[in-house]
Design brief:
The chain starts with a helix and ends with a helix. It is rod-shaped. A two-stranded antiparallel sheet has the order 1-2. By secondary structure, it is an all-alpha fold.
Length: 413
């Protein structure tokens, strides 16, 4: 069945649309900043590639060259077919002419250059390069494969540059406030920072610059490796500064807590001295008597704490942290001792109060029974009364006499 001129027009229109799509894709690729950087077009300096990226991009650019050549040949073929359509006679052998155009568009009507053979492998009578005839549709298929292959490489480079370059810029920007922190800490707290920290930061910056060059020249290979070689030492520096800041804060809090604890010890010592003095005044030869800590002992702890505070102000927080641990252990011992002294020295006074209470109960009982004024109860009661209410009280004798008073009273009941 013969093809009509209308069907031929549709076929030519389809080819025009295909060429338009190819042209648009090539235009978009040409306007891609990464392509311009790789090709050195649109005023951009051409990237100086190395390694894996250089090999892959060279292949992609070669594919694009072939693609552009093929596109031009295909466009010329379609334009020629369109011109043949425009010259169709209105009468006569129209169908025959249409068939010729159809054959032209479907037959091997395009001559593509084939790569030249290497000079070393040529014979004297062999042509270095030749042409191969192919169909327009096969040219379009080949162009599509070339575009996909080249675009894949270009977008791989694009992804690597767009990902890695901002990361490196961010890392470098992070070094600026870190440098400021190092300077401020060095000024405020001389000797607080580990030696060589600024030098380490400079080494990180040097690594970042080296990585920037590597990413600029071989982004595909760079993308296959991580930035851990740059990030790890930078993170280590940040960690050092952070830990130092945390340690300073912890030491400052610990010093404040130490001051409060020492004040508590002073209060306990004051109470312990008062209780010790009261016991010696009120009880004769008390058992378990425990002397409070001396003022020299407290003064030594206080001087030690002041020295730790002075060292902390100079920035040497690590030895202060260690020293505080030892100081706290001594303070805890001192507090425990004073608490024990208070308990021990209060026990005889409490015992005296208990004996007084028992005496009051027995006196009330004797009075109620009418025996209070009878000897020997009255004599025993007076003896106990004098012992328990005189200073210092002999609690041992008082307890013995009180027991005798109780036994005598019970014997009368």
């Amino acid at each position: 069945m013969a093809i009509t001129s209308a069907q031929l027009d549709e076929l030519l229109k389809d080819w025009q649309q295909k060429l338009g799509a190819v042209s648009q894709n090539l235009y978009d690729l040409d306007n891609l900043p990464t392509y311009q950087r790789l090709a050195g077009t649109s005023g951009m300096p051409q990237a100086r590639l190395t390694g894996k990226t250089q090999t892959l991009v060279a292949g992609a650019m070669s594919d694009l060259d072939r693609l552009f050549q093929s596109f031009e040949l295909l466009r010329q073929t379609v334009d020629q077919a369109k011109e043949m359509r425009d010259r169709l006679p209105r009468f006569g052998k129209v169908d025959e002419k249409i068939a010729e155009i159809i054959t032209f568009l479907s037959a091997e009507s395009i001559e593509l250059p084939v790569d030249a053979s290497p000079l070393a492998s040529r014979d004297l009578g062999v042509v270095a390069s030749h042409f191969q005839k192919v169909t327009p549709i096969s040219v379009l298929i080949t162009m599509s494969k070339l575009f996909q292959s080249a675009a894949a490489v270009i977008f791989q480079v694009d992804a690597a540059w767009n990902k890695l370059e901002p990361q490196l810029l961010l890392l470098y920007d992070q070094t600026r406030p870190i440098e400021t922190q190092i300077y401020q800490l060095a000024q405020q707290y001389p000797g607080a920072l580990p030696e060589g920290l600024q030098k380490q930061l400079e080494q990180v910056r040097s690594q970042i610059k080296s990585a920037q060059i590597e990413i600029d020249r071989d982004p595909i290979a760079a993308a296959e490796t991580s930035l851990v070689d740059v990030e790890a030492p930078l993170n280590a520096i940040v960690l050092t500064i952070t830990e130092l800041a945390q340690t300073r804060e912890q030491v400052a809090q610990s010093l404040d807590a130490a001051q409060r604890s020492f004040q508590r010890l002073e209060t306990l010592n004051t109470e312990s001295i008062a209780k010790f003095t009261e016991l010696r005044e009120k009880v004769l030869n008390p058992s378990g008597l425990k002397a409070p800590l001396t003022q020299d002992h407290l003064s030594g702890l206080h001087q030690w704490l002041n020295k730790l505070q002075t060292t902390a102000h100079l920035g040497n927080v690590i030895p202060v942290k260690v020293g505080l641990t030892k100081w706290q252990a001594q303070l805890d011992y001192a507090i425990a001792y004073e608490q024990s002294a208070l308990t021990s020295n209060n026990a005889p006074l409490q015992h005296r109060s208990e004996l007084r209470g028992r005496l009051l109960v027995l006196k009330a009982k004797a009075k109620a029974l009418g025996f209070a004024e009878e000897p020997p109860l009255a004599d025993l009661e007076q003896q106990v009364q004098q012992m328990l209410y005189s200073r210092p009280s002999d609690l041992g004798r008082a307890s013995t006499v009180l027991q005798a008073y109780e036994q005598a009273l019970n014997s009368r009941v």
